[in-house]
Amino acid sequence: MIRINELKGKIVACGLTQREVAKSLGISERGLRYRLKKGVFNNNEIETLMKLLGISNPVDIFFAEKVS
Fold this sequence. Notes:
It contains 5 helices and no strands.
């Protein structure tokens, strides 16, 4: 499961808006909100998010066993 709050925190920490992140992913802002709500991203989106947000260990955010 994806730790959505940590992902949102990374977006804010990088000084980005959800609109900017959505544009980088090639999706609409609404599409990003949906993905965040459902916790579903494909491999290409995860790779893009890692680069964009400087995530060095994707396991901590994208492949967490339990979400608090």
